[in-house]
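Researcher: I'd like a candidate sequence for this fold, 805 residues long. If you have to choose between options at a position, lean toward the conservative one.
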């Protein structure tokens, strides 16, 4: 009898467990992600009040069974993240429950402690919230944030274009929701460009690689920007208004359907008015985007991504006065204009993704997309100019030539039309097998190009037309292009991600191969790529990475256009059927080290790289215009080292300092010269902080200092001589005051309806520095050329209001 109570207790427990197992009729599955929507592995999922639990796999997915009940409480937890509790009321037999965990913060004597996620790939994750209150002349674009990263440079604050480790603007891949997106082809200046293709208010996650990316990404030589638009969890909205335009984003979510829509409008006439070309600026840029997902079941879903962009740029120039030179040899360039420029860039884009996930280790998707661009650049602008020593003018020297260096007239004309379409269909898959994750895909693209372009320039100096011919009136430059091109591209890839935890540390290896074929030049490419990462157990603050691979730059339309002369001496565009893809053999080694300083967490990152370049297509850069030779004429290299110090001075907001050193070289006509985008050094700062005792007042600073680009005279090449433009120097300052912040739990009245309300003031180009985007070349009758700098925007104020609800 002594052991009877224990026996009764054990029998009762056994009966309870048996009954509990018999009633386990609710199956709960889902995905656990971090703040960047990346899968969280080894997260704990348990039923509150019971011993039932599970952990997520490498893909962040889980499956758990619970007894049938009126209410089931599920608890999600992971080291370094805040716990999350969800309540299921009258759950059905099968329930899908996806959860996002936020990083955990511990408040110890006023010190904020945040855990850093280790980077085990060449794709670095960037917090989308970093740019929301940052000063940016382009209107808060993701690309302005990217341009402050190590290895990245930008020399035009009005453009979203950027260079990566010596590559051109055309060497960067951009994906939205796994779909490659394209940029307009005829844009030649930042004034024309308009809105970025990425809507920053819709972004949920940002991944960026400066090289050594895996085989799933396409055939470009420099970088990958991988954007994922978010899916709302409930009704939400955001709106912003500034002196340069406004935006509105609305989203909602139900059990099966989520939608997110964004509208943007931009008119940066006030910013353009600070330039030296005075006149009537009328830029109008409009953009609408949508991201919708419908779940047919827990395994089958469809996502649609759509974009319509209409960018109009009109400019009626009046006058221009530019002073340049040195203190002992200052010059002044004065122009009186007549005419106008009217440009229009229209883009339509749509993508439909049908995804099927039969199990947590298998996923397949069928993707179809279409891209169409319709572009027109039209201008007729004439001008009369005087080039004088500073302190004199053309009018003062009308009777003598004392201070006059050059006088003349010119007329520029262009009617450039381009229509391009890219239709794509592809199949992708992913399978988890033990410690391997195998991904693969095939894709077929059909491309069409319709080009009708004609431009010329007439110039005279001192009463003589250039080039001078006593028997005929000739233009100094002309170009004609009439082409229709249709071609097909095929691509396939397969890669394997292998992860292993050993006694020495954590090892991750990704190896893959990419195959591609282009019908235009009958070229077949094989691109092997491999990356590896290691985190030692004995030194967990360190992580090491290495990547190598053979990368190609598959030519698009601009790259295989050649300028030749016809029988009458006119310049025409011919297409090179024998063009080859440019090639880059890359070696990249990097390391991260995490530490604490000033009671804050920090991470120091460094990467060294070498790129052996061959089959290069030479090009020259003027502002944003890239003029290709259309032939594979050169070979060269790019090598350098990048440093980045990363930390959080403000909880939930990232700051960093980056510094890069680089050397590029190519052999052009037997002469070794730097590549056109050779910025030998670059320094960037992105900093956010709060003012002491005023936590609602936020301070943001963005600064860039980068070397000037090699510059040549028109119709010359770098092997004949070049000089470097001045370094690009710019600092933008932003102040934001939180009228409503997420910490305001007791807000009442009208403001209680908002999650946050921020009022900000930006000072663009704080130190009013005259940066150079290119040069206008004045040629006199003696064929002496003067390089007159084209300056970018000066200091400008902007006021903005942003709300979330």
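Model: Candidate sequence:
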């Amino acid at each position: 009898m002594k052991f009877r109570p224990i026996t009764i207790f054990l029998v009762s427990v056994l009966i309870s467990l048996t009954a509990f197992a018999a009633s386990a009729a609710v199956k709960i599955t889902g995905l656990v992600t971090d703040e960047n929507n990346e899968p969280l592995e080894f997260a704990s999922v348990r039923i509150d009040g019971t011993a039932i639990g599970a952990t997520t796999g490498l893909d962040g997915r889980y499956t758990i069974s619970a007894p049938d009940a009126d209410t089931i409480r599920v608890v999600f937890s992971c080291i370094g993240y805040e716990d999350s509790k969800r309540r299921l009321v009258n759950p059905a037999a099968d329930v899908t429950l996806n959860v996002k965990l936020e990083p955990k913060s511990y408040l110890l004597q006023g010190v904020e402690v945040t855990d850093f996620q280790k980077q085990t790939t060449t794709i670095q994750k960037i917090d989308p919230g970093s740019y929301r209150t940052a000063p940016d002349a382009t209107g808060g674009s993701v690309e302005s944030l990217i341009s402050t990263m190590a290895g990245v440079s930008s020399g035009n604050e009005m453009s979203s274009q950027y260079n990566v480790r010596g590559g051109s603007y055309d060497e960067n891949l951009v994906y939205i929701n796994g779909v490659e997106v394209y940029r307009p082809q005829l844009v030649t200046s930042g004034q024309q460009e308009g809105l970025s293709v990425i809507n920053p208010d819709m972004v949920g996650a940002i991944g960026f690689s400066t090289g050594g990316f895996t085989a799933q990404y396409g055939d470009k030589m420099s970088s990958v920007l991988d954007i994922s638009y978010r899916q709302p969890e409930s009704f939400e909205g955001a709106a912003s208004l500034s002196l340069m335009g406004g935006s509105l984003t609305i989203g909602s979510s139900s059990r099966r359907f989520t939608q997110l829509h964004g509208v943007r409008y931009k008119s940066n006439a006030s910013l353009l008015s600070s330039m030296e070309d005075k006149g009537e600026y009328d830029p109008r840029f409009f953009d609408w985007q949508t991201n919708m997902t419908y779940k047919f079941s827990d395994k089958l879903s469809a996502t649609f991504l759509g974009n319509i962009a209409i960018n109009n740029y009109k400019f009626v120039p009046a006058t221009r006065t530019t002073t340049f030179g040195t203190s002992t040899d200052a010059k002044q360039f004065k122009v009186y204009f007549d005419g106008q420029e009217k440009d229009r860039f229209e883009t339509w884009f749509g993508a439909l993704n049908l995804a099927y996930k039969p199990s947590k280790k298998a996923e397949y998707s069928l993707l179809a997309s279409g891209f169409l661009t319709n572009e027109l650049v039209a201008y007729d602008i004439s001008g009369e100019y005087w080039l004088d020593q500073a302190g004199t003018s053309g009018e003062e020297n009308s009777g003598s030539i004392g201070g006059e260096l050059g006088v003349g007239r010119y007329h520029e004309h262009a009617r450039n039309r381009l229509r391009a379409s890219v239709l794509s269909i592809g199949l992708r898959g992913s399978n988890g097998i033990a410690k391997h994750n195998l991904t693969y895909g095939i894709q077929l693209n059909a491309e069409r190009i319709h080009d009708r372009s004609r431009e010329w320039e007439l110039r005279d100096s001192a009463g003589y037309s250039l080039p001078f011919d006593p028997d005929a009136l000739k233009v100094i430059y002309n170009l004609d292009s009439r082409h229709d091109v249709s071609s097909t591209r095929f691509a396939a890839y397969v890669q394997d991600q292998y992860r292993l935890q050993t006694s020495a540390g954590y090892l991750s290896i990704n190896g893959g191969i990419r195959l591609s074929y282009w019908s235009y030049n009958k070229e077949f490419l094989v691109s092997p790529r491999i990356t590896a990462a290691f985190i030692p157990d004995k030194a967990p603050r360190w992580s090491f990475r290495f990547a190598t691979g053979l990368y190609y730059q598959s030519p698009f339309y601009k790259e295989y256009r050649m300028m030749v002369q016809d029988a009458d001496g006119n310049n025409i565009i011919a297409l090179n059927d024998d063009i080859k893809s440019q090639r880059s053999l890359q070696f990249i080694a990097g390391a991260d080290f995490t530490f604490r300083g000033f009671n804050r967490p920090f991470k120091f990152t460094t990467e060294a790289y070498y790129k052996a370049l061959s089959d290069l297509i030479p090009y020259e850069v003027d502002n944003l215009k890239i003029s290709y030779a259309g032939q594979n004429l050169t070979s060269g290299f790019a090598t350098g080292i990048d440093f980045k110090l990363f930390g959080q001075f403000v909880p939930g907001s990232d700051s960093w300092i980056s510094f890069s050193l680089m050397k590029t070289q190519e052999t052009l006509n037997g002469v070794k010269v730097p590549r056109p985008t050779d910025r030998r050094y670059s320094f960037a700062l992105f900093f956010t902080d709060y003012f002491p005792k005023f936590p609602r007042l936020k301070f943001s600073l963005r600064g860039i200092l980068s070397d000037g680009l090699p510059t040549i005279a028109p119709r010359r090449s770098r092997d004949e001589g070049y000089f470097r433009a001045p370094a690009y120097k710019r600092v933008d300052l932003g102040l934001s005051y939180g009228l409503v912040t997420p910490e305001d739990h007791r807000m009442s009245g009208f403001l209680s309806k908002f999650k946050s309300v921020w009022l900000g003031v930006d000072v663009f180009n704080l130190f009013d520095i005259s940066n150079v985007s290119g040069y206008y070349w004045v040629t006199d009758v003696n064929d002496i050329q003067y390089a007159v700098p084209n300056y970018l925007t000066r200091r400008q104020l902007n006021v903005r209001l942003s709300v979330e609800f």
